[in-house]
Amino acid sequence: MHIPYKGSNESVLAMLGGEIDAVFGGWGLTSTQVNAGKVRVLAVTSPQRSPMLPTVPTLRELGIPFGLNSWYGLVAPSGVAPDTMKRLEESLRKAVGQPEIANRLRNMGMQPQSSTSAELRDRIRSDYDIWGKKIAETGVQKR
Fold it and tell me: Per-residue confidence at 62, pLDDT binned at 50, 70, 90?
């Protein structure tokens, strides 16, 4: 059963309060409750097991044909000079490679990595193709 909530925080609070049995929630939102033993992670949505939760199966391992990696990207307005883009890419690569920053990202449930602007563009296009088809299959209409 789908029970809509205004946001992720509300859904986690509803689960903790016994209103609902389970919720899809990111590590940043649920880690405190997981670490305190208040909730248990049943599965991860990524195609492969999480390095942070190596004993937790994927949904696919449980027989649910689903695999999704969420990601964050740094974007800039179109028309940024190529040399500026290269400097941004290099700065981001160096930042993500710093142990302190990489550890902070891991603690938020992320797997630190960087890419070039071309790689990010390709990822966005690929995800758009995949999820655009899935959305069209459901019959959801644009507003």
Answer: very high
List alpha helices for 17-110, DSSP H: 27-35, 82-97, 99-107
Its sign, for the CA torsion 25, 115, 127, 53, is negative
For residues 54-76, one letter each, b for 16 or more C-beta atoms within 10 angstroms of the residue's C-beta and e for the rest, the string is eeeebbbeeeeeeeeeeeeeeee
Measured at the CA of 76, the angle between CA 70 and CA 77, to 5 degrees, comes to: 130
Confidence of residue 69 (pLDDT cuts 50, 70, 90): confident
Give the containing element (helix H, strand E) for 9.
helix 8-16
Backbone angles phi, psi at 140, to 5 degrees: -65, 135
Whole-number Å distance between alpha carbons of 24 and 94: 32
pTM above 0.90, yes or no: no
Mean pLDDT score of the chain: 89
Q: Which residues pair with 44 in a beta bridge?
A: 58
Closest by alpha carbon to 70, among 34, 123, 5? 123
* Tokens matching residue 143: 């507003």
DSSP 47: S
